[in-house]
Amino acid sequence: MPHFERLYNFACWLTQDRHEAEDLVQETYAKALKGFSSFQPGTNFRAWIYKILRNTFLTSRTGLKATSNVPLDLEGDDVLPPAKETPESILLQRSDSQLVQQALERLPVAYREVLLLCEVEEMSYQEISTTLAIPMGTVMSRLSRARRALRTLVQEMQGSRG
Amino acid sequence: MVCENWADKLDAYLDGELPPAEARAVGEHLRSCGACAAESLSRVQQKRAVQAAGQRFTPDPAFRARIQKSIAPRRASRWKVVWFPALAGAMALVIVGAISLHLNRERRGEQQLLSELADLHVATLASSNPVDVVSTDRHTVKPWFAGKIPFTFNLPELQDSPFTLVGGKVSYLNQSPGAELIFRVRQHQISVFIFQEQALANGCARKNAQSARSFSARSWSHNGLCYFMISDVAAQDLDKLRELVKRAG
Predict the structure, then answer these.
(1) How far apart are CA B168 and CA B146, in angstroms?
(2) B49 vs A97: CB contact, 8 Å cut-off?
């Protein structure tokens, strides 16, 4: 089963529920098997199967709920405010994993998924573009916003904790 | 503060998505700019932190087993194992059958053609007027055909050969006109038929027909014309005349 563990991990992040994630993965494999003829050899298999999983999620009840409250300025062209913090204050360590996980959970799905595909799945921008069915430029701007949002969130959480 | 010019490129640089030339430029800048270097370090740390935090959920073995079972290909039945080679065998038989049928049909076509020519030859032998132009002179026979058949041909020089030209007449095969020339060698007559290749359904039959109904036969094609020789003479006589006719082209 190609990408099984990683797909499951990604599904858990999307659904935030292990049972739903299992259903999602199962449905993804079923759809992939059924629609394997639509996969074009030579194209990216990973992007293809992640795309199936993501589309399945988006049409699920949880997916619809998660995407219905996405902030409207997600893809806006507004200039991002310059980072106020000094680098030292936001150096994240691996030991901050729990904090980062909580921050990821709180991010809108669109930010969460693009971060996971880039950092965890280590997909290229091109692969992300295929998986999410968005242009490369949007991949870059969304990734940049997602990182900024995560950083701000972690800072806030660090502030409230300490 | 991070340099504004470079800030946009830092992410792509750290994600390994910049083209080599730009990546080199950013790398050089980072060596000379403390603020940008610090910002990069912070972003790399964040990348690593997300990478570590993101690998969070592992499927439990029961779920893995369930999925494996649900997507495992069904055990191939014996029927399945058997029908593939059987189908391939059947296909091969059909193909071989089709080819031999085609060859047979072609051979049958050829035989039919030679048979028809043998009929014409026999009819000529039996006729009281075997030829329409009676002449041993090739320079009389050849012009006689002009306007009667849609092509022309050369007649062989028969001096110093055992053959004599008797004459010729217009003959028909598949509703197409052609020439029938009669040669004599000793007491035997030889019919030489000349038809246009395009007039024959199967082309020129086999290049080297040997016999038809115990007559000796020869066939060949030259310049879009098909030549057929039919006679009761010995094979070597037929071959000799064939060489003379061929040489005349």
Answers:
(1) 12
(2) yes
| Per-residue model confidence as pLDDT tens digits over A61-119 | 888 887 776 654 555 544 455 454 444 445 666 557 889 999 999 999 999 999 999 99
CATH assignment of the domain containing B137: 3.30.200.100
Helix/strand/coil (H, E, C) string of B123-148?
HHHHCCCCCCEECCCHHHHHHHHECC
d(CA A32, CA A30): 5
With H, G, I as helix, E, B as strand and everything else as coil, classify residue A59: coil
- Nearest-neighbour CA in chain B from A148: distance (Å): 10
CB < 8 Å to A83, chain B: 2, 39
> Can you tell me the distance from the alpha carbon of A2 to that of A124, in angstroms, rounded to the nearest whole number?
18
Query: Is the CB of residue A80 less than 8 Å away from at least one CB of chain B?
Result: no
Give the ipTM of the model, two decimals please.
Answer: 0.87
List phi, psi (to 5°) of A126.
-65, -45
pLDDT in the model for residue B137:
84
According to DSSP, the β-strands at B188-196 and B176-185 are antiparallel
Domains of chain A: 1-69 (1.10.1740.10), 87-162 (1.10.10.10)
Best residue of A91, A117, A153 to probe chain B, by most B CBs closer than 10 Å: A91
Q: Please check whether residue B29 lies inside any domain of the structure.
A: no
User: How crowded is residue B182: how many other Cβ atoms within 10 Å of its Cβ?
Assistant: 22
